[in-house]
Design brief:
Number of helices: 8
Largest sheet: 4 strands, parallel
CATH topology: Rossmann fold
CATH class: Alpha Beta
Structural class: alpha/beta
Radius of gyration: 19 Å
CATH architecture: 3-Layer(aba) Sandwich
Strand content: 5-15%
Shape: globular
Number of strands: 4
Strand order of the largest sheet: 2-1-3-4
Oligomer: single chain
Length: 269
Amino acid sequence: MNPCVNYERLLPEQIREVREQSPVAFIPLGTLEWHGPHLPVGLDGLKIHRLCELCARSSGGLVFPPLYYGEPREEGLMDSNPTYRDAISKEMGLASENFAPGYMRRSPAEAVSAYQNLLIHILNQCQSLEFRVLVLAAGHYPLIDHARAAAGLFHQQRWSGQRRKIQPIPWVFTGYELVRNIFSDAGDHAGFWETSLMLALEPELVAMEKVTGSPAPPTAVLSSRPVCEAGREFGLAAVQKIVEQVTIRVRDRLDHPERYLGHGLPLEG
């Protein structure tokens, strides 16, 4: 098998070889958002893209290009959060009013509908390419709800109420929810957890000197532990467990598709 798992980098015959062995499509979902002074604004997409690559090498399958655009930017985003908007704008050298309600020129409800329809569009595209398990991987935690909604609607489109051939099975994960019974610090925003993951996945993009020895917590960083305690060793252990859990769930969908037919698509396990 070709060591590359990135769909867009492969030749048709390479794609076919991988797909025939393990027809799994990983679709990373990110955004562009403030993640403190020490982490890149593309953290969500960068983090989940690398996780998907590791998962594909473990479970089999291919990783599609990450999606950084289209999400509802006026909801669930630090840059638009009234509590942090002024401070983040100042740090970024931007006018705070740039992110006032209505700046995206459509209502939050319209943005939600458009984003979920975009995800369904992507799922339909992957279905046409004959992948059997379609994994929407949300690096930005609020996107899990939109991804689950899209997965449910995609699944419903293929339900005829009668016996049918095996159709693609969508599944959604972010990572932390799969291992929070193992790591009590799982899941935060630019804090100990995400910083540790980035030290494991993309260490050259982390500027720990920006938070080490700082007398005050960084702007709009939500963490159960001081960010300066983040470490690569912890991050590697967390990444390994996430990949193990994703592999179990993906392989179960490949080996037992009958468990995922009918109404009420299982999205948690």
